[in-house]
Amino acid sequence: MITRVYIPMDEYVDLLPAILEAGIPNHKARPRPVLDLCGLRCMFLTFEGVDAYVRTPFAFPFVISVLRGEFRQPMHRLEEVDWLYLGGDKAGFVSALAEHARATGEEAELIPFRELSGAVPQQPREGEFHVTIPRNTVNYNENSWVKNKDVLSGVPPESWGRKTANNTGSYARLIERLAVPHLPRPPRVIVDLGSGLGYTTAELARLHPEARVFGLELSDSALEVARASFDEPNLTFLKHDISEPLDFGEGAIDLLVSVNALAYARDQKRSADDIFAKLSPDGIFFNHSRIGYSHDFWEFPYSLVWPLIFQIYPETWAGAASERGLNTRMLPPQLSRRLTPWSFMHPMSQGTMRALERCSLRYQEEDVAEYLPCTTHALLLHSRHVEDNMESHLSGGPSRGETLAHCLGLLSEMPDYMQDMALRSRRENAKSMGLGDVGMDYCRRFVAGGVAF
């Protein structure tokens, strides 16, 4: 067996000495003027809890996460997958190839090429290597809650934000304005799923004294603060893993609320099905969360083959709602549309980050009625009594290329200054990844309809 390794001609001269020095068994093939992407041997990646997939060769640097951290796959499982170097960390590429050679005993066939043609077909083929990437369910607020719980228990909730704890504000007034008017009668049962420190839950209990209100939270530290801070007679805080089914009867919940929490549910479709089953026929679900589209949009081409699977994608929730006869209305984030450095997985230069913050502050002042992926969060309202607007927000298919085509294609609907900023960030991301002309061309071919840089 051999491992076919395709290398652009302008990179071949630099990579060859490093491959030889690493002692990787190899032989050199005749150069190809054109590499047809349609014929490459690929692996098929699916993602836990997300209706998304991608078929890809070992395209470096885009799929290196397959070999890192909790996603790491044994190298021998990558047999019969073609390797394609498109730029970036040459030492990292050679190291991965050497590890693969040791694990499989395969010889590397080094194939220089000048340019690309075609695109990688996305439908899986029988016998291809398939792996499901596990979902990251780490709650990034937990460390803050543990560190600050003693301080938080002794001060008024309106002061929590000044004590450096994360996600401490209340969404109750927004829920009253945007969700409650769609209920035909006052809610009898209210559930806050992923209630955190309990501020929103407690305010809902005060606003609806005749309702039974439940805050469901997994964090012991958050529950300790919530129980010490709020004692409304109609309010109960319970420990609950957000990935598990709700302990309520079918149709029992009139108003269900979740703020920045459901991204941690391991199986998004299963959680959505359970939630909509527990919602009363005239009930409403207020779901505010970070949307994976912002990663797809701002961090392209880092995001080429890798969805941000610890955020939500609205198709999953809208589809599950529709199966229950519910509409979905997607709205822009309601408290802030500002982008900050913590919004991103990959670093931007200080100049670009400052420019992006200026753009987001300007966007914050505009009257925005529809969600666009230049903001990180969105609000999903699910109910029979809301007007559905999801047709314009659905990506058109679960393949990664289709999702990116939809998301990146929304660039033209944004203000000019946001369009300029997006193109600047894409070019900077591509440069920081070390992509050359061939790597940029691969990105354009991967996204259905192409993409601008």
UniProtKB/TrEMBL annotation:
Extract the Gene3D superfamilies matched here.
Answer: Vaccinia Virus protein VP39
- List, alphabetically, the CDD domains matched: AdoMet_MTases
Entry EC no(s): 2.1.1.144
Q: Per UniProt, which keywords does this protein have?
A: Methyltransferase, Transferase
Please name the top-level EC class of this enzyme.
transferase
The species this protein belongs to is Pseudodesulfovibrio hydrargyri
Molecular-function GO term, any one: trans-aconitate 2-methyltransferase activity
The record's listing under PANTHER family reads: TRANS-ACONITATE 2-METHYLTRANSFERASE-RELATED
Its name, as the record gives it, is: Trans-aconitate 2-methyltransferase
> Could you confirm whether the keyword Cell inner membrane appears in this record?
no
Gene giving rise to this polypeptide: tam_1
Which GO biological process categories is it annotated with?
methylation
Among InterPro entries, the record links this protein to: Methyltransf_25 (IPR041698), SAM-dependent_MTases_sf (IPR029063)
Stretches assigned to the Methyltransferase domain: 190-283
